[in-house]
Amino acid sequence: MGSDLFGSFAESTCAALVISAVSSLGVDHDFAGISFPLMISSAGIIVCILTTFVATDIYPAKNASQVENTLKMQMIISTILMTPAALAVAMSTLPPEFTLQVPSATPGQAYDTKTVKNWYLFITVATGLWGGLLIGLQTEYFTSNRYQPVQDVADSCRTGSATNVIFGLALGYKSCIIPTIAIACAIYTGNSLAGMYGIATAALGMLGTLATGLAIDAYGPISDNAGGIAEMAGMGEDIRERTDALDAAGNTTAAIGKGFAIGSAALVSLALFGAYITRVKIDLQQTSILDPKVFAGLLVGAMLPYWFSAMTMKSVGKAALAMVEEVRRQFNTISGLMEGTARPDYKACVAISTNASLSEMIPPGALVMLTPVIVGTLFGVQALAGVLAGALVSGVQLAVSMANTGGAWDNAKKYIEAGNTEHARDLGGKGSDAHKAAVTGDTVGDPLKDTSGPSLNILIKLMAVESLVFAPFFANLAGGQGLFFHFFGL
């Protein structure tokens, strides 16, 4: 739970610490300045602890309809409080200015020396911080059934499953716009002010309210499992209605958590990409997309998230098929099961899920782990740079659209079931044709939002980390050209 957020947090911290250690802060042994990334994270923990009292004492939710607002207020208040905290940390730990090395745009010159002022880093952190909030708020808008997009998806169920799927996919694609712009602004601001250090600190800023983000993220599965317990225990319909309302809010909060994870993963991966470029000692001209090796790698890298997603989605489908067949077998062979007088074989169903979760992850894992090694060894450091950039660019878009499409389909189904508005009641409620179409969308959306979407964060980060680790080997192998191009003299 939350491993993708924690992974981004750890990697952005490490990237920022490494870059600061080789800057003038490290040369001058300025321990306080080097510790700036850690101090930002520490300030964020304190801010999030204080923000917790908003939900527990200051503005507690009195009914299910207030849950989303309370959680959203926590996110907004923690961001507001974190802004002056980041300024205080930047002014107190960093010297008025320091220098670091950035890749040079001048031909034949590897690096330029860049002077960075302490308030520059406050700007980079604040850009990431508010960019993360913007991503969270727009995610809520596209996945909460209180807003028009999800209600439009629910309304499309009037004409069947096909239109529901069409509207859901369109919603996911449209939801990529604001996160992409927010990430682009954070990257441009961070790189302009402090190079790759600025991008790493922007990622830390986006994760500055990580404690609140994790609390909001964890709320989803907790409320979902509460609903499952209520149903299995045969509790009253009123209990199930409350847990469904909480679960609908949980779907939105889970999507918000995925939005933060995707945004921070993009920033972290770019920082790691910059470290890779530095370690293999190639200049900006050699990574131009006009270079055929880089462009070819770019296309292959952009394809990888789709290949990876195809593997993970098919794995979910195969496991679901095995589960359905096992349930049918039990209904046919265990007498009294249909009448509720016999006990099902739960262990067999659990075994199918656990075995599939392990065995079916081997091919996608091999794809992620082997791609950098094969490309770097055979085709060289420039082609691998293109692969990393392509996977980052397409993976971010795909992950955002998958997470939001799945969340919207789930909440469209909840919207029809709850029947809290005149529009929802017109759709017919539970058991209607519109509800059956919504269930189809929800079923399609589960592997998108729970499997393929979140795992794309790992794809783009792990490939960047692995490339960085093997960078010296790739750079020294056949002069960095790769065995294929070296053998054929290309």
Task: Characterise this structure.
It is an enzyme of class 7 (translocase). Its EC number is 7.1.3.1. InterPro entries: PPase-energised_H-pump. Its main location: membrane. Pfam families: H_PPase. Strand 1 and strand 2 form a beta hairpin. The longest helix is centred in the C-terminal third of the chain and has 57 residues, at 362-418. 48% of the residues are buried. The radius of gyration is 25 Å and the shape is globular. Helices cover 80% and strands 3% of the residues. The chain is built from 17 helices and 2 strands. The mean pLDDT is 86. It has helices spanning 3-21, 24-27, 31-34, 36-58, 67-93, 118-143, 148-156, 161-174, 177-206, 210-232, 237-280, 292-333, 346-359, 362-418, 422-426, 433-476, 483-488; strands at residues 97-103, 111-117. The chain is mainly α and 490 residues long. Helix 8 (161-174) crosses helix 16 (433-476), helix 9 (177-206) packs across helix 11 and helix 14 runs antiparallel to helix 16. It has a two-stranded antiparallel ribbon.
